TrEMBL record:
This is Pectin acetylesterase. It comes from the Eukaryota. GO terms for molecular function: pectin acetylesterase activity. It is an enzyme of class 3 (hydrolase). It is found in: Secreted, Cell wall. Residues 1-24 form the signal peptide. The keyword Cell wall biogenesis/degradation applies.
Length: 397
């Protein structure tokens, strides 16, 4: 980064200001206090929240609604743990957050969406906004109300001008990327037929893959999420009419039925999926995968072969959904999770590219119908533009 040399000798405050010019402006939090009366609350009963940066110029009637990621909780124990954090309580959320990448307000960093109304919806329900259980256990005081939170936030944004949108894009990272898939058509239904509405999922295409011990762990996990949160009635009925609710958290069982144009941005070696679906800690009790999960460049040939098999399964699950002309694809061969929120991977000098296009270029071309974009990268390690994630702690999830 060009400012790196300056910051070596600057104070902490000046450093923060220097990096702010690159990483984005800070945006205040908005609490949806009116949602509490509707029972549309976080796990701990606190109101839902979002951050809104108002659009300007030609973007004043365009809206980007981006959903925060953060995994899921699948039982009372894990939901209680989340309840005490920002992922379960708006009381624990930062009052301001930096907007960068797809949320940046600078044309040099975000050429197609910089002047839109940009919203980051905070994630505090643990179900990708699908839960709705009326009863609250007096012992735990846990509220499973993600679907109500989604509706309350949408209602609040519509009342603040989103109902007049000419363009609207729902997006999200990780569990938020799954949210943008699960709620894609529901988001489309909020707008008049002449509004251009599309959906972008970043690192949200989680696949149904056995772990290295041959256990279907992730299926059992999503079954737990669906049961705990009462998600069945809020998952797409085209899936739940055929499969169990837990299976309907896998986009490979959803995407074919989605009518709204959808762009899937994902790494074929998604680092979260490798570390938590393919090689969860309990499937590697002796830590043989620690170095490989820490840094893909440290994987021996035998483990890299397994990762290539994961890529094959990922691409198979993706291709089985078909590729209609309205679908966008940017599938690179990087070891990373989420690429739209970070400036260096969204749009910057040295950003990841497929066939000369950055992620921002590809998404912008697709949204505005300038050019279709459906590209899948060659296998690792062929892509020199990747920003592969290196984990400081090999056991970090």
């Amino acid at each position: 980064m060009a400012n790196g040399g300056v910051c070596l000798s600057c104070s902490a405050l000046v450093c923060a200001l220097v990096f702010l010019t690159v990483d984005g402006d800070f945006v205040d939090i908005t609490y949806v206090a009116s949602a509490v009366a509707k029972g549309a609350v976080c796990l701990d009963g606190s109101p839902p929240a979002y951050h809104l940066a108002r659009g300007f110029g030609s973007g004043v009637n365009s809206w980007l609604v981006h959903f925060e990621g953060g995994g899921w909780c699948s039982n009372v124990t894990t939901c209680l743990q989340r309840k005490r954090t920002r992922l379960g309580s708006s009381k624990q959320m930062a009052k301001q957050i930096a907007f960068s990448g797809i949320l940046s307000n600078t044309p040099d960093y975000n050429p197609d969406f910089y002047n839109w109304n940009k919203v980051k919806v905070r994630y505090c329900d643990g179900s990708s906004f699908t839960g709705d259980v009326e009863k609250v256990d007096p012992a735990t005081k846990l509220h499973y109300r993600g679907a109500r939170v989604w509706q309350a936030v949408m209602d609040d944004l519509l009342a603040k001008g989103m109902n007049s949108a000419n363009n609207a894009l729902i997006s999200g990272c990780s569990a938020g990327g799954l949210t943008s898939i699960l709620h894609c058509d529901r988001f489309r239904d909020l707008f008049p037929v002449d509004t251009k509405v599309k959906c972008l999922s970043d690192a949200g295409f989680f696949i149904n893959e056995k772990d290295i011990a041959g256990v279907e762990y992730i299926v059992a996990f999503f079954n737990g999420v669906a049961t705990t949160h009462g998600s069945a009635k809020n998952l797409p009925s085209a899936c739940t009419s055929r499969l169990s609710p837990g299976m309907c958290f896998f986009p490979q069982n959803e995407v074919k039925q989605i009518q709204t144009p959808l762009f899937i941005l994902n790494a074929a070696y998604d680092s979260w999926q490798v570390r938590n679906i393919l090689v969860p800690g309990f499937a590697d009790p002796h830590g043989k995968w620690h170095s490989c999960k820490h840094d893909i460049d440290q994987c021996p040939a035998s483990q890299l072969q397994i990762l290539q098999g994961f890529r094959d399964d990922f691409l198979k699950a993706l291709k089985e959904q078909g590729t209609p002309s309205t679908r966008g694809l940017f599938i690179n061969s990087c070891f990373v999770h989420c690429q739209s929120e970070t400036q260096e991977t969204w749009f910057a000098s040295g950003s990841p590219m497929l066939e000369t296009k950055t992620i921002a270029d590809a998404v912008g071309d697709w949204f505005y119908d300038r050019n279709p974009f459906q590209k899948i990268d060659c296998p690792y390690p062929c892509d020199s533009t990747c920003h592969n994630r290196i984990y400081d702690d090999p056991s970090e999830a």
